[in-house]
Structure formats: C-alpha cells, structure tokens
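fold description:
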Amino acid sequence: MNQRLSSTRRGAERLAPFCVRLLSSAKGREARLQTDEELRLRPRGAGSVLRVLLKSAKGAVRATKRARNTRVTPADGSSVLRVLLRRPVLVLAAAALSLPVLPVGVLSAKLTPEERIEIMRGLTAEYATVKAFLPRSKKHLPFPSDGKYDKAAWNEAGREFGPAARVGDLIQVTKVDVENDEIKLEINGGLRTGKKWYERIEMGTGNRTTPINNGSGPTAGTYISVLFPKGIPPIEAKEIKKILAPILDFEKRSATENYVESLPEPIQAAIRDKRAVEGMTREQVLIACGRPRNKMRETKDGDELEEWIYGLPPGKITFVVFQGDKVVRVKDAYAGLGGSTADPLPPR
C-alpha cells in the first residue's frame, strides 16, 4: 500500500508543474486576446468558451497543487489522477490556448472556384493605360496588394531588359493565373526572347520536314504578380483593378464595352436585357446570352439554318435561328408546362 501511495504521489507531483506552466501560458494568451483586434473577428460567444475551459483547467491545477503541498492519502492521490486522466481535454485545451491564434475571418475566407473563374474572366483581355514605368521581366514583378511596390527593383529590371510600356501606352492582360496568395498577370504576351527547344523540332519524310509546333514569335511584354500575404480574400475583378491603380488605369472602356457602345440602340438594349433579337450577329448573341446549350443545323427551302438552344426543361427554352451570320427568328417556348409565349405587341 505504501509503495502504491508513493507512486501515486510522484505521478501527481510530476504533472503539477506541467499544468502550472500550461495555465500560465493560457492566462497570457487570454490577456493578449482581450486587447487584440483579431478578437473582433471571432464568433460571438468564443470568449465565454475560453473562460469556461480556463476555469476548469484552474480547478484541475489547484487539486494537483493541494496534492503536492499536503500529505497525500490514497483517496486524495487517486482523485487527482482521476481528474487528470478522465479529463485530458482540459490539458489539451490549455495547450491550445498557448498556440498562435489566427483570425477566423482569414481561415474561412477562401476563394471559391466560381470566384476564381470570375476573376480570370474579368481581367483576361482587358486593356489598361500605363500610369508608371513598366519594365520587361522574365520573372513576375511583385506588386503587394497595399500598392506599395519596390520601384527600385522595377527600375533595375528595366535597365536589364528595357521597358515593356511607357507612361500613356495601352497594354492588354493576355493571361491570368489565380493561386493561393497571388494573382499572376501576363501583359502583352509576356517576355519571350526566342523559341523553345521543342518548338524547333521538325518531322517529315525524305527531304521535306515541317515543324510539329509553330509556337509564337518573340514578345516584348512582361509579368506582374499581385501579392496577398495572408491569402487571397473573396475579391472581384474590379477590386483588383483598383489595387493596380497606381500603375495601370482600367477606367478606359474595355474592348467589349467599346464594341457594345458602337451598336444601334435596340441592339444595346437587348444586350443589357440579356436577350436575343432579330438582326443580331452571332457575336452579339454570345455577348447577350452566352454560349448556347445546344446547336442544330438544317436546310429548309434551300437555305441553311442554324438553331441555338438556350434553357432546360421544364421551363423557358429559347430558340435563336441564324441564317448566315444574322438572327432571323427568335422563339420562346415553355417545355413541360404547356403553351408558349405570345408574340410581342407592336410598338405604339
């Protein structure tokens, strides 16, 4: 019995300093959290959960201290060990409180696949006017999301490869890659000084050979990487354009917007309403309605017709019929619901 009591007491004494250190660390973390701005990002009620865990941990440590400073009876020693062994979650909770805390907003704010696609769509093929010196570079020029970039490093890249564009020049974003903490932009095709080795390979028979990959010629563009040190938050293309405002002006109308503004007013109104009307071209229908779900071709009275189908049953289905490059007929039907739409009323 004495040997068992001695073993129990030694176990309690060994655990007591460990619990005291965890409690001290947990207290420090709780004090820092109360004055930290990140606390505002935590869900409501998180402070109450921390206080409950801390209070329970304090009780366990007090019991261990009493077992260390007083004469331990078999019952007391067993009680302390049972508290610590049956409730290990308290020790783990105290240890967790001593670890660095990340804002909940940062952990949960991640780009969805749809948001990534929207960023790429919103930036690809967009034109901008250069507002600051833009050098050529084989590597991506770093541009922090706060707009404070290293102008000296950019000038150094310009001395090595020359300028990709000068102030006032019009550039185009030719490629966009969205990664975890940066958005990579290719400007004017990037910087290509010559063909890759695999673009020089030719195949053929006899004395005649042809290249297997025509590739593209040298380009004099550059690359920019918009950096987000804490990861890319949910963000739209227009906000990224604002971030790039110190070097690029996207306020100039995009190529698509310029094209739409040059169209007759009825076509512009149809594009704004996202609908097809007679007289539209294929390109205008794509701008207004997007890509069709299906396409069908037929020959009627010697004329070749192509039908673009939008919508899914049950519900509204739109049939856009082209003859050549022009829309000759648009019809709406309601599959599975019975009936079809009435012809539009004549203008007054």
